[in-house]
Amino acid sequence: MPRAFITGITGQDGQHLAEFLHSKGYEVFGMVKGQNNPKLTAMRDEFPYVEPVPGDLADLPSLLKALESTQPDEVYNLGAISFVALSFNQAELTANITGLGVLRMLEAVRMVGGATNNPIRFYQASSSEMFGKVREIPQTERTPFHPRSPYGCAKVFGHDITVNYRESYGLYACSGILFNHEGPRRGLEFVTRKVTNAVARIKLGLQDELVLGNLDFKRDWGYAGDYVKAMWLMLQQDEPDDYVVATGETHSGEELVRLAFEEAGIEDWQRYVRQDQKFFRPAEVDLLIGDPTKAQEKLGWQREVDFPSLVKMMVANDLRIESARR
Ligand code: NAP
């Protein structure tokens, strides 16, 4: 039975990946931080097959202990301070967890190593936010980085140090440059889920308006369930490499809002939406669109859920949750 160790198990991708690896017959270990993590009970209920392991990306000894006790074949480093807006307010924390946390995890992988004939394979969750003020359209594995937030800067360090450990120490280390991916498990702080949840609440008469920042930004949005398959595929190749994972389509913030309201049967969406400067980023990333050709050709990866189906899935989920709460 192959063994996988996942950091960020309580996050959106950690949950999808745990589900996927379990379906593939893996024994799944999930790193949980804190002495009384409020998400642990829900995780135990929904994913009884995941074995929780204590640890924190700020603490190298805890990572070493976690890998020594679990002896994984594959390590997926998904843990991060992942919310761009928060990274502007807590830049040092973001650099420490999202950036230096990768170095600590790589160091733990290097030191624990795994079996001589089966060294640990490492996946790093890199991000399209590294492209920031984009240098070319669409963005590929060769597009130069120009991050526009402390989060983006920390991810560039995580990406580069992953490549460096591969080249310096021969680690099987891959970096997946994933464009935005969403789904019903997305945290409520992220714009897609904020929109679909507010639309559901407005539809049910529980909320009057949706307050947002800039709506002109454009993103390449996919479904998280599709994207975790690409992470796994990267670790099944003969040689480690880096891959862009994206849909190759871009949609504006306004399109997201309009589609979500339409899905709930509300046509005059402008009536409910207000823009507020406080939700504008200090430096915006205007246009992200990825070229997934390498992932498609080398990994055989394909996305299955398109943008309208993704919005539909998220609105339906929030309508179900909010109706049950009424
Ligand atoms: P998420 O839902 O925000 O989950 C983040 C996870 O990181 C949570 O499990 C969180 O644990 C954990 N974490 C935070 N601080 C930690 C620490 N000090 N030590 C250990 N774990 C810690 O993020 P996601 O959407 O699943 O994304 C997974 C990864 O992919 C992240 O690295 C993210 O930056 C990256 N990424 C995401 C996207 C996207 O569109 N979703 C795109 C590109 C890259 P708690 O719940 O206990 O706080």
Write the layout of secondary structure elements.
Layout: E1 3-7, H1 12-23, E2 27-32, H2 40-46, E3 50-54, H3 60-70, E4 74-77, H4 84-89, H5 91-112, E5 114-115, E6 118-119, E7 121-127, H6 150-169, E8 172-178, E9 181-182, H7 191-203, E10 210-212, E11 218-219, E12 222-223, H8 224-234, E13 242-245, E14 251-252, H9 253-263, E15 273-275, H10 293-299, H11 307-325
Parallel strand pairs: 1-2, 1-4, 2-3, 4-7, 7-8, 8-13, 9-12, 10-15
Antiparallel strand pairs: 5-6, 11-14
Helix pairs in contact: 1-8, 3-5, 5-6, 7-9, 7-11, 9-11
What keywords describe this structure?
Rossmann fold; binds NADP nicotinamide-adenine-dinucleotide phosphate; alpha/beta; two-stranded antiparallel ribbon; seven-stranded parallel β-sheet; 326 residues; UDP-galactose 4-epimerase, domain 1; 17% strand
Name given to the CATH homologous superfamily of the largest domain: NAD(P)-binding Rossmann-like Domain
How far apart, in Å, are the first and last alpha carbons? Answer: 44 Å
Please state how the strands of the largest beta sheet are arranged side by side. 3-2-1-4-7-8-13
As a percent range, the share of helical residues equals 40-55%
Structural class: alpha/beta
Could you tell me the strand content as a percent range? 15-25%
Question: How many separate helices?
Answer: 11
